[in-house]
Specification:
Layout: E1 3-6, H1 11-16, E2 21-25, H2 39-48, E3 62-65, E4 72-74, E5 81-87, H3 89-92, E6 104-109, E7 115-125, H4 126-132, E8 138-139, E9 142-143, E10 145-147, E11 158-163
Antiparallel strand pairs: 1-2, 2-3, 3-5, 4-5, 5-6, 6-7, 7-11, 8-9, 10-11
Length: 183
């Protein structure tokens, strides 16, 4: 896959003070039962993201790299992998959460450079969320995890929730790390 590195969309990067590197690309699985009663909502998310199953496209077209320029994110403790994230930058910076428009779609790399959609991630910058809310966001009955500044992505503090809506995760639909995903 050919990609070119860019900063987090000019003024957005400056406003965030982020060192996160992003790239724009050129180019159905089993579901676990640990959904906590959200089967219909997860089906709606699968439908909303169905056009992106075989690879990223606008608006989810900005590829995420961590500070070490790693794009396929694996747990350093060996509990699993997230995959390759593509974000919708405008959605990432709007300070809101929309169930059918996650901030990131996550892909598992395949043979010949192919990518398969496996999960979605909801993200909101903590300062933007906290300005209007007394508590962290909750979606699908799950409280978002807070990731502090100084994280591997170079972002300020943010809240996040992974949803394995396309590939089963033996650790649960809303767990960050999936041991069945491979980079």
């Amino acid at each position: 896959m050919r990609a070119r590195s860019t900063a987090l969309a000019g003024s957005v990067a400056a406003g965030l003070g982020a060192t996160l590197l992003l790239a724009t690309p050129t180019a159905a699985s089993a579901h676990d039962t640990k959904t906590h009663g959200h089967t219909q909502k997860l089906a709606q998310l699968r439908e909303a993201t169905s056009a992106y199953r075989n690879g990223p496209a606008a608006p989810w077209s900005t590829q995420v790299f961590d500070k070490d320029k790693i794009t396929c994110i694996e747990d350093p403790h060996g509990t699993g992998t997230m995959g390759i994230h593509f974000v919708d930058v405008g959605n990432l910076t709007d300070g809101r959460i929309s169930r059918l428009a996650p901030e990131a779609l996550i892909y598992e790399p395949g043979a010949g450079g192919s990518m398969t959609l496996i999960a979605a991630e909801y993200l909101v910058l903590a300062d933007a969320w906290d300005a209007d809310h007394a508590r962290p966001p909750i979606l699908y009955g799950h409280r978002f995890e807070r990731v502090e500044a100084g994280n591997r992505y170079g972002l300020p503090a943010f809240y996040e929730l992974h949803v394995w809506h396309e590939k089963a995760n033996p650790h649960g639909t809303f767990n960050d790390w999936n041991p069945t995903v491979h980079c």
